Amino acid sequence: MRPQLRTTVRAAVQERTGAILGTQTMRSGNDNALAARLHTASGEIFVKGLPRAHPQIRAQQWEADLGGKVAPVGPRLLCHVEAGGWSLLGF
Fold first, then answer.
1. DSSP state of 51
2. 50 forms bridges with which residues in the sheet?
3. 86 — phi, psi (to 5°)?
4. CA 30 to CA 90: how far, in whole Å?
5. Which of 8, 62, 76, 88 matches a 20 to 30 Å C-alpha distance to 68?
6. Distance (Å, rounded) from C-alpha 79 to C-alpha 91?
7. CA dihedral in degrees (28, 65, 67, 12; nearest 10)?
8. By C-alpha distance, which of 35, 42, 49, 44 is closest to 81?
9. HSE, side-chain direction, 13 A CA sphere, residue 70
10. 21, 9 contact by CB (below 8 A)
11. H helices of 1-91, where?
12. Strand, helix or coil at 45?
């Protein structure tokens, strides 16, 4: 079961994405504690994340650092949100 995000985390994501109109939890991609498609007023955004205390948090930080450099090959990183003990990447 995927975790529910605290209100503070959801608010921090919405500051970057605009209002979240709906969510769809992704069942594949077990490398993250959270993986979801967010339906926002400006379009769809895929968000994945880990609690800051997770052992793989360094790998996610590297992905965030490289996000702007891999756009021609992979999805473009739209936002990196750190709030409420979570680190989330939005694509």
1. E
2. 87
3. -115, 155
4. 17
5. 8
6. 7
7. 70
8. 49
9. 12
10. no
11. 7-17, 57-66
12. strand
List pLDDT tens digits, range 35-81.
999 999 889 999 999 999 999 999 999 989 887 777 778 888 999 99
In the structure encoding, which two tokens stand for residue 47, read together?
């968000």
Beta-carbon contacts of residue 2 (< 8 Å; ≥ 6 apart) = 25, 33, 34, 35, 36
Q: What secondary structure letter does DSSP report for 76?
A: P
Encoded amino acid at 30, one letter = N
Residues 88 and 91: their CA atoms lie apart, in Å, by 10
Instruction: Render pLDDT for 22-43 as a digit per residue (tens, 0 to 9).
Output: 999 887 656 788 899 999 988 9
Report which of 1, 57, 56, 77 is spatially closest to residue 34, judged by C-alpha positions.
Answer: 1
pTM of this structure = 0.85
